[in-house]
Amino acid sequence: MFKKFDEREDIAGSQQLKTSVQKGIRNKLIEQFPNLEEVMNDILPKKENFKLIKCKDHMELIAGHDGTVLFVKHRDLPYIPTLRLLHKYPFILPHQQVDKGAIKFVLNGSQIMCPGLTSPGAKLDESIAEEAVVAVMAEGKQNALGIGLMKMSGAAIRGVNKGIGIDNIHYLNDGLWKLTKVQ
């Protein structure tokens, strides 16, 4: 999704949000990520305003008061935290782990195939439902290397063991990762 994201070409504009809209977004984020409730004031403080950045292809970015992009929202998808935020608060998303052989493909933006999630070295959480947003971890690595959307449930991935298991949305060194701050 962000493979060729470029700040100069893809960002259409930004706007300061009213306090009531900001409160609504905070509540949606807490509803979607219940683990964030305790740290929400660290991420999006009530006293500080945050921006909504509109991008091409029905994409919106939520940036904190300092310009750091924290969440992404596509028209068809729920809010998705950025990898930088996920590295700071790894408990936000459930984890799926790929084996060492899949790392270079994930970092290249490829979809995560079922065999990469079921082979030795991978850890598949079968309780995660289809269409859930997950952190893509890697065998032997501490931090997430991507964020994806489950195309099948964990149990279906284990049973079928072929095809696309996770749609790779955001990964290390993609366009969104390189976008450090937005003005």
Automatic annotation (TrEMBL):
Family of this protein: Belongs to the MCTS1 family.
PANTHER family: MALIGNANT T-CELL-AMPLIFIED SEQUENCE 1, MCT-1 PROTEIN
Protein name stated in the entry: PUA domain-containing protein
A GO CC annotation given for this chain: cytoplasm
TM region(s), chain numbering: none
GO BP, sorted A to Z: formation of translation preinitiation complex; translation reinitiation
Cellular location(s): Cytoplasm
Pfam families: Pre-PUA (PF17832), PUA (PF01472)
Boundaries of every PUA domain copy: 94-173
GO molecular function: RNA binding
Keyword field: Cytoplasm
PROSITE patterns hit by this protein: PUA (PS50890)
Main subcellular location of this protein, as a coarse class: cytoplasm
